[in-house]
Amino acid sequence: MREVVSEFLWRFLAGPVVADALNQGSATWQGVTAYTGYNPVNTGVWVGIALVCLGGAKRLANEYNISYEPSTVVYASPFVMMGGVLRFIEDAAAVPFEARLLLVTPVIYFVVAGLFVACLAAARRFGSQDRALGSMGLGLLSVAVAVAATQVEIAAPAFGAKGLLVPAALTGVFYAVVRGTEFDRPVFFIAAFSQFFGGTVSMLAVTNGYPQKQLLAQLSTDILGPGGILVLKSGLLGAGLFAARDTEDRFTEVALLLALVVVGLATGLRVYLRVLSGL
């Protein structure tokens, strides 16, 4: 029984993480091969852990009277971008293997979340909490960008241009549609750009021979072709924005908006840098 459990944990949970850190398609331990990427088991576990962490964060916010505003998402964006840059650093093997274990899913979420919480606690000592938080995030992002810059090579310039111009144009359309409405706020524009950016670079990556790793992305691509992921991201954007608008709980609103930015901007930035550099 113990061997069965060990093999299960390796095949579906630990093995994909190790394979990702090794930058290989698979990793074998005691004759059991695990493949990198997402599977139904680790997807469910990671989502479950995320929900538990969100519940804990909400309780802490209530206990210590920590207030969250939608504008907090704007100032948290540098931390989100740092997560994407750190994933690219891991992909480029720019740090030792032991450090790369900290930069793969789901471990990196805890690393970035820990840095965010530490900076948030420190920012509360300043008069303008959000601005202090944003400044700290920009400082950490600058360090990550400096390391990543040593690994970036412009191997796909056309992809690089399209990956920025298409989501910018779609965000412009979004602005034209929501202008003067309750969605006419910077935080909603950042959420929209994040989803359009993530969907666009994933779509372009598929056309450049890169596989989809996330299960929903695979399904949407199988059904609708490369553009399916952009359709999926647009649907997530609409659902997330309306859910954030209709909720009466401020923490839930901020969590929904931050989730849109994370799953769009962070993952999109990693894919963008990978394809741009030909990794």
Q: Could you list some keywords that capture this structure?
A:
single chain, 279 residues, mainly alpha, two-stranded antiparallel ribbon, 3% strand, globular
Detail the poorly predicted runs: none
What is the SS-derived class? mainly alpha
Radius of gyration: 19 Å
Shape: globular
- Beta-strand residue percentage: under 5%
Contiguous helical run count: 11
Average pLDDT, rounded to a whole number, is 84
- Order of neighbouring strands in the sheet with most strands: 1-2
Largest sheet: 2 strands, antiparallel
Count of extended strands: 2
Calculate the terminal CA-CA distance, rounded to whole Å: 40 Å
Element string (H = helix, E = strand)? HEEHHHHHHHHHH
Q: Percentage of helical residues?
A: over 70%
Would you mind describing this structure in some detail?
The protein has 279 residues and is an all-alpha fold. It contains 11 helices and 2 strands, in the order αββαααααααααα. It has helices at residues 2-21, 40-63, 70-91, 97-100, 107-123, 129-149, 157-178, 186-207, 215-224, 228-246, 250-277, and strands at 26-29, 32-35. Helix 5 packs across helix 6 (129-149) and helix 7 runs antiparallel to helix 8 (186-207). The longest helix has 28 residues, at 250-277. It is globular and about 60 Å long. It starts with a helix and ends with a helix.
